[in-house]
Each structure stands twice: as structure tokens, then as C-alpha cells.
Amino acid sequence: MLELREVHARYGGVRVLHGVSLEVRPGELVALIGANGAGKTTTLSTVAGVVRPSGGEILFKGRPINGLPPEAIVRLGIAMVPENRDIFAGLTVEQNLRLGAYIRRDRAGYRRDLDEMIALFPVLGERIGQAAGTMSGGEQQQLAIARALMSHPELLIFDEPSLGLSPKLVDQVFALIRRLHDEGRTILLVEQNVAQTLRIADRAYLLRMGRVEASGTPEELRREIDVEGAYLGGGAAAAPAGGMPA
Fold first, then answer.
1. pLDDT of 103-133, one tens digit each?
2. DSSP string for residues in the chain
3. For an engineered disulfide with 6, which of 56, 119, 215, 224 has Cβ 3.0 to 4.6 Å away?
4. Residue (of 21, 93, 27) closest to 57 by Cα position
5. What is the 3-state secondary structure (H, E, C) of 153-220?
6. Cβ of 224: how many Cβ atoms within 10 Å?
């Protein structure tokens, strides 16, 4: 469904990605793991159209999407739950969900999907008319996920969904991602909680300094390398002077 072929990317004059290649097949949950500065978020940003690759090719369902704006990529069927959740704090829960469905024109379908999101995330129904910025971090994360689902994505991308959440809420977020995957959704996940991530992923790629260092099933990765040691860095994943995006 999604394929990156030797993708390179820069932030300003800093090279961040150095020929990243990966694949996400229909129905898979694929994880990107690595230390801070490894290039995980930058990889997702190139897929979502936020960062324009400086080389290589990105294909979605066999179609090149390099250089397309984010709105066009959403219309093709890719939705991203960003690291900072990026909800509209001054808008209500329902208004945020409506924005998630902005590419759609079917009112009846929107109503059905709104009811489905409320069934999936009951707290959103309880807060439907409440300003999103007044909700807890865990509630805002649920809203960000529901908003992404409102666009009917074929590929759902998560960037650090457990960041800043309590251990209890982290467990809930991972349970939700597992549930979405069990329902047949295709997911690309970036997460710093490596142990939890490898429990639910079908396959994973280990990024280090903007390169894919290893890939395979969680079991294969554990057999071949010290995943936790590589993830924690040991000095090899440190950002260069001036900083490297995650």
C-alpha cells in the first residue's frame, strides 16, 4: 500500500533522511522505532506531505505522491495523528470532528460516522459541545484519533500517540491501536515505547541517524540486534549540532 524508496529529506541545510526505504502492506501494523533524532517523525512528515523529499520516491497504492500537498494526500486516503495532537482548542469536540471530515460531502454518512466515533470513544459524546482545549490529554488524544478516522483513511499514521500520557492512558491508547488493527486497518506507527510497540506490530523498522538499520518482525529484530540498546542510542543516535528533528 505504501512504499518509500531511498527517500532523502532535509530541514534547512541539515540532512535528516539518508535513503530510507520501507513498505507497509494492506492490513499491516508497521512500526518505526529509534532514538530521538533518528528521523522517525521526518519520515512520517514526508509521507503526509509536510516535508518535501529531496530525493527518492514515495508510492501510495502504486502512485507517486512526492511533492503533493497535505490536503491532496488526505484525499488519497492517508490520515495522520500528529505528535502534538494538533486539535483546535477553541473549537468544540464536534467541530473538531467535522473538520476531520472536511473532504467529504455526504451528510448522512457524516452523521453515521459521528455516531460511530461516539460509540468508539464514549467520552467524546459526553464532551461533544465542550471546547476541546478544556479536555484532559488522554481525551484530546482520543479526539485526535477520531478526527483522523472521520476522513475514512486507508492508511492511518500515528506519531508518538502515548507521548505525555500517564501509564494507565498509555495502556488504553495501545489497546485502541491494537483494536483498530484487529478491525483490519492499515497502520504506520512511530512510538518511543518500544516494548509496547513491538507487542502489537506485525513488522518494524529500526531507524538510526536517518537510515534503516534493521527491519523484520519483532521476533526477528530481537534475535538479530539489541533493540533496546540500539533504541536507547549508546551515543550513535545523538543529533548533530543545531539539532535534528525526530
1. 777 777 788 889 999 998 999 999 999 999 9
2. -EEEEEEEEEETTEEEEEEEEEEE-TT-EEEEE--TTSSHHHHHHHHHTSS--SEEEEEETTEE-TT--HHHHHHHTEEEE-TT----TTSBHHHHHHHHTTT---HHHHHHHHHHHHHHSHHHHHTTTSBGGGS-HHHHHHHHHHHHHTT--SEEEEESTTTT--HHHHHHHHHHHHHHHHTT-EEEEE-S-HHHHHHH-SEEEEEETTEEEEEE-HHHHHHHS-HHHHHH-TTTTPPPTT----
3. 56
4. 21
5. CCEEEEECCCCCCCHHHHHHHHHHHHHHHHCCCEEEEECCCHHHHHHHCCEEEEEECCEEEEEECHHH
6. 12
Cα end-to-end span (Å), the chain:
24
Report CA 231 to chain centroid distance, whole Å: 18
Strands 186-190 and 155-159: parallel
Contacts of 200 (CB under 8 A, 6+ apart): 29, 174, 177, 178, 181
pTM of the predicted model, to two decimals? 0.86
- Asked if 20 contacts 43 with a C-beta cutoff of 8 angstroms, the reply is yes
CA distance 160 to 63: 27
Summarize pLDDT for 17-47 with one digit per residue, the tens. 999 999 999 999 999 998 888 899 999 999 9
Distance, CA of 187 to CA of 121 (rounded, Å): 19
Angle, alpha carbons 112-187-10 (nearest 5°): 120
Q: Rounded to 5 degrees, what are φ and ψ at 5?
A: -120, 105
pLDDT in tens, 73-90: 999 999 999 887 788 999
